[in-house]
Known about the structure:
alpha/beta; Nucleotidyltransferase, domain 5; six-stranded mixed beta sheet; 17 helices; elongated
Amino acid sequence: MFAVEVYAAVRRFVFIEGNSRREAARVFGLSRETVLKMCRFSLPPGYTRTKPVAKPKLGPLLPVIDAILDEDLTAPVKQRHTAKRIFERLRDEHGFAGGYTVVKDYVRLCRARGRETFVPLSHPPGHAQVDFGEAIGVIGGVRQKIHFFCMDLPQSDAPFVKAYPRETTEAFLDGHVSAFKFFGGVPCSILYDNLKIAVAKICGDGKRERTRAFTELVSHYLFQDRFGRPGKGNDKGKVEGLVKHARTHFMVPIPHAASFDELNCRLEGRCRARQGERAGRHATTIGERLTADLAALRALPAVPLEPCEKRSGRVSSTALVRYRTNDYSVPTAYGFQEVVVKGFVDKVVILSGGKEIARHPRCYGEGAFIADPLHYLALIELKPGALDQAAALQDWALPEVFQHLRHLLEARMGNKGKREFIQVLRLMEAMPQEILASAVTEAIHIGAISFDAVKLIALARIERRPARLDLTAYPHLPRMDVKTTSAADYAVLAA
Length: 495
């Protein structure tokens, strides 16, 4: 191939100096065809193949290679064919005698044709994308999988990340409520993939049937919901990038925290610190570009949405209500009634007729029994024989002074003493355990061993007044006989 300088000299000789191509061929010692090509092209055009190269050895096996590559589309990513493995199969199964290079080149071309290309997108201010990610963390000393909610504002790349024990409806709702509070407004629209928490069904015409919880969220905050194509996570590439960034930057090394509240406090700090950084090729920081997003956000409603999953339920004969495979207790007076269960991220609230009747810490195990001992005391008072075998009372960590009181009551009054002890426990339905324990201690100290005495002392402590006990109601207590002192009594002292 001739150098560019030769091209320039020949073209100047012909076009500027006005010489013929025949003369140029003679002067420069070139063929007429070469001079003609130099006159047609200002630069060496390179080698051009006039006919496609035939692959006499590979040609009959091209359908075989195409079939292998098609099968790989449904195979696990780590178990797909490499070009070398395809070459080995062609050699061993089809007697291919050609070289590896021709197979490798064809496989590379086929895979390049199958790769998806993308259209660059612009992101106006005030819009968001949402997704969940997974990571490993140590919470309360327990190594476990954590699920973190991510909201990204694509125009500024401003992130919000919050971790949860599970990817549930209530976590999805709580993540939105927390993100809106963090940014101080509601995005105009939010882009999702087709997660089951939000989409109950994808109809044939491409429309989505929303879940009830997601519909309530949209109705409360009035943002536009948008969905990507099924199986196409790259439609919301910004939040996909945030999930990866949060996992590799916020979750490395593996986070250790006493609780999810502590972990989320750290994550919020990391999100705020991220606003001082630059993302991509932008010259300004995320925080500087966030100003445009915040100006476009809609105002928050006066009252935030209650981030919980609502389910109807029925109280069993043992005063239990089932929620997500676990049983939660209610007062026995509500047996067999219809109730509404509100499942929050950290608690379960049970209502009857719009009134809250029970509240428990949320359990993420399976088949667990979560009971409040106070819910069963009214029934145990009618059935005192069940006191020692009631499942709800087995792990009740009461101060030792209560057990001492029980021994004294039963030693003095037998079965009636057991019933009075249950009545003492029922006082915790109306007052804190600390006050009652203090009242029991004082009652034992002064020898007033009864339910009435404990109740009077406890009420006096609540009302911050001295207790006035009328001992005429306790004939079993020893009485003091105080006589009038006479002058003769002092003669003993003088002796």
